[in-house]
Specification:
This protein has 431 residues and is mostly beta strands. 2% of the residues lie in helices and 39% in strands.
Amino acid sequence: MCEVGNVIITASLDAISGLSVTVPYTVSGTATGSGTDHDLANGNITITAGQLTGTVTFAVTDDGDLESAETVIATMGTPINAVKGVTNTIYTVSINDNDGANNAPVLAWVGSGNYASDGVNPNSDADGSSFEFQVSYTDDDDEAPSTIEVWVDTDNNGSFAAGEKYAMTEVDGGDTSYTNGKLYSKTLPLSLVGDGVVDYEFHASDGISSATGGAPVGTGGTLNVVDPLSVPGEYASVAAAITAASSGDVITVAAGTYSENIDFGGRDITIKSVSGAGSTTLQGDGSDNPVITFAGGESSSAILDGFTINNQKHSSTNAFGIKISNCSAPTIKNSLIQGNITTTSGSAVFIDGGGGTIENTTIGGSGTGNTASQHGSAIYFINSCSELTVTDSFITHNTSTYNQGGGVHLNTNAHTATFTNSSIEGGEMKM
């Protein structure tokens, strides 16, 4: 066994020869040569005439890496001026790590946004939809993962086959530290199989130890692939589909313009367009009511995905684009909220006693801005019951008569409003 230092390999004869003997050898093993772990290369040992032995010396170096034991193997070739013996023709050196005990890496939930308490987004979606898995990897020895995978029971048979173990990729290539929770991700389209309840878990190794980490590694989590309720295929209106839905269901809406007001009614359901916001509009029925209402304590699992939302420029007291209240905190993403007009505040998104998440959404736009007679025509956020998070969104060309936050108005909030990678233009923020 060896850690650091010089190693001598000796070749010997069973009798003195009057000729010099050359003993060739080749180098193999798990250790890395060229000075990384050692500096032994293929070569020859010379036994000088009249001598019984010859030697070669090589150095074992400390590469500073935590790793398992490695080997250097020298294998004798056919000597010149001698006959190779039957035994002792292979010389093996084991290199033990001298950098201390290895700390096993730890996997954890990301702990924020859509990954606050599990490792998948969304938690429920329609047959054929894509699900993104994320996990946080920490190694106190600052070792990168040799493998990091999400295991997904795609065939729903209660086990993970080799083809259901998917390599993950780093979220931020510029993050070169592994000591403070580096994020890894994998996106997979999933089909409805069996009951649609799909198990998943995460696994990783630093090359020495397998990752620990409780739930992500042990119990993992579940997601739901569901048979969606379709509009107008099965239901004539979005409101009718909501009435038939239960929490966890998904409603898919075909391209078109829908003149109706919808209320999630306390259901944690997903309503998503098939063709995206540019082709699918919810515009209200022209009455003095919000186009979209969240007032039943809905959570972030109540999702509105991929719509243009406007109130047909119906200038009245309550005809907001979206109204959130009663400690509701829904998710709104991939949408356009524009052309909404009210005689009060918050014509696009009015939040009084709620919160929520807005992702990849444009509120306003040149020629399609939202207008409020009072404050915060894009977002009006007061009396918060939970946090408001706005990510990867544009808030532009929105106006209010009082100019108390023509774009965004935040007031009397016990919770924070966080804007990440988002811009506010053509309408100020007021706090």
